[in-house]
Structure formats: structure tokens, C-alpha cells
Amino acid sequence: MSTHLDARDPLVVNTHELVRRAGATRPFHGTAPAPADLGIEVIGVPEGAPLRLDLDLESVVEGVLVVGTVRAPLVGECSRCLEPVSDEGVHRITELYNYPGREADEDELFLDDELLDLEPAVRAAIVLDLPFSPLCRPDCRGLCPRCGLNLNEHPEHEHADDPDPRWSGLSGLDLGGDRAADEGPAAGD
After folding, report:
1. Per-residue pLDDT, 1
2. How far apart are CA 31 and CA 52, in angstroms?
3. CA–CA distance, 130 with 127 (Å, rounded to integer)
4. What's the rounded Cα separation, in Å, for the pair 99 and 20?
């Protein structure tokens, strides 16, 4: 099925010199703006951020094999303390783009005439590689579960222990108070 790719799109590559020439290879190095929604809820690549592509395209019997890396800036929030997180991810791509008309599974990628769209391969490489629980640092202490204070900034922070709830019924009783007042006047008064 042809999707009519736009050859001017920075994530679309023309493979004219590779098509149907098994064994032919060519490098592809470039920068492209990140598409929208490239990430998960807590971390991802900002839309329009530069993706640095270092790929090798190789013509094989089935189509064009794309192998290499994509570097992308990652931003999100720490899953423990909710502070901002930023990093650069290096993600590996290995994807076969099948020739049109070739029998393949539904989820496999195909060339559109001589064009291939890198976006699905880039998206899969980055999103599947993202941490589900990103951390600002490996030893992040998180937030205080009682008051929400950032324990990285206040490592000595603590709360008094709560009394055992089994004893809460006794909290309203006067168990000792002022004995002299309870006993009445002293003898000889």
C-alpha cells in the first residue's frame, strides 16, 4: 500500500541507487526534527528537537536494511522526586524495509516506490528504549511520603513516630493526673 511519502521530509530517504541491487550500501548521516509524541508519559523527546541519525542502508534481496543509531535529547521528570530530568539517548535501529508487493506481515515496513520513511523505525527505537521510571540520579531519595518534601534537598528530614493506633482509645483518659487533687483534703486539714 503506497502512502505517497514526501521526499522533502527530513525522515524520508530516497533509495534510488540501492533499489534491487543486492549488496549495495550507502551511509546516511543527518539531522531531523523530532516528530510529535515521541516518548511516554514521564519522559520523551521534545517535538522539533534535533534527532542525529547515523545509519547505513544496505540493499538486500527482500528490500533495504537500515542499521545504525539515532541520538536524541530526552526530557521528563524523575519518577521518585518529580524534578526535571534531561539526558541524551543513543538508540539502535535495525529495520528492514520490504520491496512493494513482497509478502510480509502487517506490521512490517515497506518502501514507497524508492522512498523509505524512517519515522516508524526511529519511533520504535526510541520509545521502546525509554525507562519507565526515569531517575534524576541513581541514588534519588524521592519525596517524603507524609509531607512531600524532597528528601534529596533535606536528607535529615524526619517526622516523629506516630503512636500505635491500637492505643488510641486510651488517649482521652486521665491516667495519673494530679493525685493530690483527686484524693481530696489531706487528713488534719
Report:
1. 42
2. 5
3. 5
4. 9
